[in-house]
Amino acid sequence: MLNNNKKTKLKIAFDNSDFTYEKLAEIVGISKSYCYKIINVHKYKKNIYYGTAAKIARALNEDMSELFNEHQIFFNHIVSLRDTL
């Protein structure tokens, strides 16, 4: 389980990128606040749509399943194609 002291793969990828929350949010098409909460899931417990996760992974040039694996564990829910309809 995630805790406040452990950075997720998503947070590490974001920190290693040149993006700001505002710029990544603009590219993905979400608010800066929502972007921040997705990246800091261990604090905010925000669900994320499959399409949004895919856009974030693409922007960060990362594999989506690896980048969001900890989100799936955190919510105890595996995202399926059914969830995108």
UniProtKB/TrEMBL annotation:
Cited CDD domains: HTH_XRE
Gene3D superfamilies assigned: lambda repressor-like DNA-binding domains
Domain (HTH cro/C1-type) ranges: 15-67
Origin: domain of life: Bacteria
Pfam families for this protein: HTH_3 (PF01381)
UniProt cross-references to InterPro entries, sorted A to Z: Cro/C1-type_HTH, Lambda_DNA-bd_dom_sf
Protein name: Helix-turn-helix transcriptional regulator
Organism: Bacillus bruguierae
